[in-house]
Design goal:
By secondary structure, the protein is α/β, with parallel strands linked by helices. It has helices spanning 53-60, 83-90, 108-119, 124-137, 153-164, 183-200, 211-217, 235-240, 245-250, 279-287, 318-327; strands spanning 9-20, 27-38, 42-46, 68-73, 76-77, 93-97, 171-175, 203-208, 220-225, 228-234, 264-271, 290-301, 304-314, 331-334.
Amino acid sequence: MGPALVDRPLIELIDVSKTYGAGASATAAVRGVSLSVQSGEIFGVIGESGAGKSTLIRLINLLERPTAGRVLIEGEDLCSLTADALRARRRRMGMIFQHFNLLASKTVLENVAFPLRLEGGLSNPGILERARTLLDRVGLGGHAKKYPAQLSGGQKQRVGLARALACGPAVLLCDEATSALDPQTSAQMLDLLSALNRELGLTIVLITHEMEVVRRICDRVAVLEAGQIVEMGEVVEVFLDPRRPITRRLLRDDQAEAGPVVGRLVRLIYRGEATRAPLLGRIARETGVDYSLLAGRISTIKGEPYGQLTLTLTGGDVDAALARFAEAGVRVREGAS
C-alpha cells in the first residue's frame, strides 16, 4: 500500500457521462460513472478496448469535458472554472500517454523543460537544472542531448514521465502508459511509478487493458464495461473474488468453464501465509475426501502472496473439509461462480 490515505478524496467523479454526437448518431462513451481516488493512492481502471477508458481518464483533467456530472479535484468543481483557473489546476495534474507525444524537433532536455517554460516563474538556468534533475530521477541523465528518434520506446516513455513531473503535480494520469512497451521495459516502468508513489506521495490514476499492470502496483481498481463501472474495490478482493463475467474474462479465469464434473466443484482462495501451508493434503486425510485438481494459480498482488485452486471433492465428509478450510483462513466458493 502507498502512503497513508486521507479521508477526503483528492479526485471525485460524480455521475459523470460523456456523449459524442447528437440524436440518432449519439454515442455514449462514459455513462454515469462515480468514483473517488484518495491522496497517495494508485487507482487502476481496466477494461477491454472500446470500454471508454481513455475518455474516462481525460475527463479527470477536462481534456474531455463531461456531457453531464461533476469532476472535483480537492473539492473544487473543474467544470465551473474559468479557462485560466483550469490551466492552473491542470499544472497539478501530469499526464503520460501510450504513444509518448514527445516533440520530435526538441532534445530530450528541452522536451522536459517545455512545460516549465510555458508555466514561467523560473529563470532559464533554473528550468534546465530542474529538467536535468528529473532526467536523473528517471534514469536518463546521460541522454539529455539526444532527440526522441534516437531513443527506445522505454526511454521515450521515461522522458514523457519526466515531462509530466516537471511542474510538481499532485496527480499523475497514465493513459495506457505501458501497452507500447515490451514486458521487461513495462515492468521497469511500473517499478518507477511505484517508487514515485512511495517517495513523493504521488497520486496515480492509470488505465490499462493489462491485468498484470493492476496486479503489480494498484491499490484499488475499477472495471469498466461499455462506459460503466461494473465492479470496483481493492485489487486483492477484485482479483481473488471477481463477481462479473467481464472481470473473470479479463483475468482469464477459466474456472467457470470446467465442464461436467464429478463431486462438488469448489474454489479455494488463499491469502498470505495460508498460501504456503500444506492444507489440502492434511484436510483431505483428516476428512477422508478425495480431490481432483482442475485449475490453480499462485502469484502475488503488490507483494502479497495469494493462491487459487479449483477442484472437485468426493467421498468422505466434504462439509467438514470445507469448514476446516474456512477455519484456516481460506475463502471457499462452491460451484463455478
